[in-house]
What we know:
The structure holds 2 protein chains of 2 kinds. Chain A is an all-alpha fold.
Amino acid sequence: MSTAELVALMLTDGRLPTGGHTQSAGLEPAVRAGLGADGKQLADVTTYARDRLHTVTRVEAAVAVLARYITHSHQSEGLRLVEGAWAARTSSQVLRGVSRRQGRAYLRLAGRVWPEVLEHLQADSEVPRPIVIGVIGAVTGLSAEQVARIIAYDDVQSVVSASLKLLPVDPAEAATWLAGLHDDIEELVADVSPLTDIEKIPANGAPLIDQFAQNHATERMRLFHA
Amino acid sequence: MHETRSFRLGVAGPVGTGKSSLIATVCRELADELRLGVITNDIYTDEDARLLRSAGVLDPDRIRAVETGACPHTAIRDDVTPNLIAVEDLERDFAPLDVVLVESGGDNLTATFSPALVDAQIFVLDVAGGGDVARKGGPGIARADLLIVNKTDLAPYVGVDVEQMVKDASEARDGKPVIALSRTDPASVAELTEWVRTMTAHVRTGGHTPVDPGPMAPHSHVGEDGTLITHVHSH
Ligand SMILES: Nc1nc2c(ncn2[C@@H]2O[C@H](COP(=O)(O)OP(=O)(O)O)[C@@H](O)[C@H]2O)c(=O)[nH]1
Ligand SMILES: [Mg+2]
């Protein structure tokens, strides 16, 4: 029997074939801009991940929570409104594009694994990733908390694991950073999981992360897509 | 086969063995006769796509790059999603295409394409890598649909006996084709283009079943009755 717990584990497993190996959650351009410079300030990586949890990732998680809620309540136009709210809060065109590309990869997989997803989203469309995750959550019986936690955990894990490729980091140290962020993740989950009103999706932004993303899009030599 | 579905042909092999050059050659020779598209896989951005576009052998819009995030092996094997999306987009935007060539980012001798991504694959070695490589084998060398021993024009300078290298490779491949190629040798280029032509026709008529070279080298174990069994797992 499929349980919500197992679905949640699948969705946060980096081995799920959705192109996750191309993502650093913005860490690569941040490193390029000086984060963790010279290998002396490696703990900057955690600060960066925490800043994301307070800003862009908070927005993403709230969008996923709303997408789940709207899918449950069968409001057919509702997902479009969630998408509009997401776009209004994601000011970087590059980051909107990145999220849509990732969303398409998730949707492609979800359409095979959980076909019911396609009753809510058009196959092969470029839907923002948090909306796809929210809809998967709805059709597989995930709670709002689980959906928010998936977004938050995945984001932190993307940052931390990309740091192993980009900086001279000891993998055990990286895992320690990840564990050290659990409180921040749960705080985010508690904040966004009760949301049921699109207008209440937070609008926190991180202009520097947007700027880094814009720079990265024209970078000639990069390891990660974003 | 769906109307807009092309023949998807993978080109794998270690870095620098001549995959991009081979694709450029195929485009130059066949672009007038087959509707082609190209997907490159780059470890760092779109270097290979740029190189191929600047070679002027194919409409630059038909050459697209997929970023592999430092995992070229993953992108053609365990998680082909970004590549599949790129191939499907190309097939849609330029429908109908006859062949889409997918170049792997190239890492080591063990990397081969998943049959979920390509219908057939070429594995490229070069003489500069040494005459022993073919004999040592590996899944791509042993079981790719076509093995190329490239840059034969360099053989005298690196002390490699091409004939011997091809012979070793053929033995490792159970009769599957091997072509000794050099871009400066028109006869060998003709052999390559003829293979692509024939394979394209074969795939189009549904006569070809994709073969997975698989990650495993042939191995031996002792059977229940004590005899030695040497075999290759076909997945
Ligand atoms: N001498 C010689 N050089 C070749 C031949 N084919 C490719 N090369 C060179 O080998 C190098 C690597 O080729 P490339 O196609 O970029 O290899 P890839 O990394 O496998 O894509 C380049 O400098 C090519 O010009 C050939 O037939 N003969
Ligand atoms: Mg190349």
